[in-house]
Design a protein that fits this description.
There is one protein chain. The protein is mostly loops. β5, α2 and β6 form a beta-alpha-beta unit. The radius of gyration is 19 Å and the shape is elongated. The termini are far apart.
């Protein structure tokens, strides 16, 4: 039986480490589900990798994330809430490649690198990366978009890239 002193000490240590964690890598753990509140107490979390698992939906993500990797899962568009990344104002790297996404999720302004290759994205719109009614809108931070391996033919949507510094890599024919 553990002494009360040791039990309190362990609780304090656990609390300290969960509150101060900045990086978690759960790559390749066969995780199929994560509850929405799982990361809620990790207020300082900046980097999270859930790559190479079996996720079909994303949990709520911590607001301070700068890098999120969910490559090689089973994510579909309906498994990502429309506002999943909206409050992530510091998110710079977003990796959602090798999933089953049918559409590009809403991407925060802060994102610099976006990997969406090898999904099932069939179309994009003027509002996917830019703003349909704002010809002066620019998105200078978004410097790398990878969309190769998707059925979408990017050349059908030339107005979708007018706000970007460079066009996405992907299929143009």
């Amino acid at each position: 039986m553990m002494s009360e002193y040791m039990e309190n000490l362990l609780k304090q240590l656990f609390h300290f480490y969960t509150v101060t964690l900045k990086r978690i890598d759960l790559t390749g753990n066969l995780i199929s589900e994560i509850e929405d509140g799982a990361f809620s107490k990790l207020t300082l979390l900046e980097e999270l990798s859930l790559a190479e698992n079996r996720l079909v939906k994303l949990p709520l993500l911590p607001n301070k994330l700068t890098s999120f990797n969910a490559n090689y899962n089973r994510l579909k568009t309906k498994g990502i809430k429309a506002t999943a990344f909206k409050k992530l104002a510091k998110l710079a790297n977003l990796f959602l490649a090798n999933n089953q996404l049918e559409a590009v999720p809403q991407i925060p302004e802060s994102v610099r690198i976006l990997h969406l290759q090898n999904n099932n994205i069939t179309e994009i719109s003027t509002d996917t990366f830019c703003r349909r009614n704002d010809t002066y809108y620019l998105r200078p931070r978004l410097s790398e978009i990878r969309m190769e391996g998707n059925p979408v033919v990017l050349s059908k949507y030339p107005d979708s890239f007018t706000c970007l510094r460079s066009v996405p890599t992907g299929r143009y024919r």
